[in-house]
Amino acid sequence: MDTAVAVPAHDRTPVLTVGTVVWLASELMFFSGLFAAYFTLRASAGSDWPPEDVHLEILTSGLFTLGLVASSGTMQLAVRAIARNRLPAFRGWVIATMVLAVAFLGNQAHEWSSLEFSVSSHAYGSSFYVMTGFHGLHVFGGVLAMILLLGRAGSRRFGAADLPAVEMVSYYWHFVDVVWIGMWATLFLLK
Fold first, then answer.
1. Which residue from 19, 104, 119, 183 could staple onto 129, CB 3.0 to 4.6 Å apart?
2. Helix 15-45 and helix 123-152, axial crossing angle in degrees, nearest 10
């Protein structure tokens, strides 16, 4: 006799959630590897870290960091709006999140164009450009995911039933923000 009890479908964790968590875990390992490489290079550099030609705009990057952190709040407000079937509010919050993300990327592009060191200048330069570059690609990927959400939100059938997809994008976005906080503190503040 089979004694297994079937779990109702509504009590199961959605496959999309499980997949997203597993994928974010792999992303965490990727960024952990970047941080490990940075700290290994830093330890081997001795007291010459960062090199003398490294002059980063801590205040400006800090302001754009606050903007990126605020974008986690606007993304969460988008999640709450779609859970309540408030489609216009959802769209507005996603657009606000995208504006903050694009401003962050614009600052990163400006920063890269004005720095006195390059990826080939020294180990710090290599670490800086690789870490911020991969993070920037992740921010860009998040913006693309939000564009897809907005495209789907153009359908009359889009609403609270699509909450799991919106939540998965928000999990990714919060992850990208948390990674940047650690990265900014490491690259810009830690001397």
1. 119
2. 160
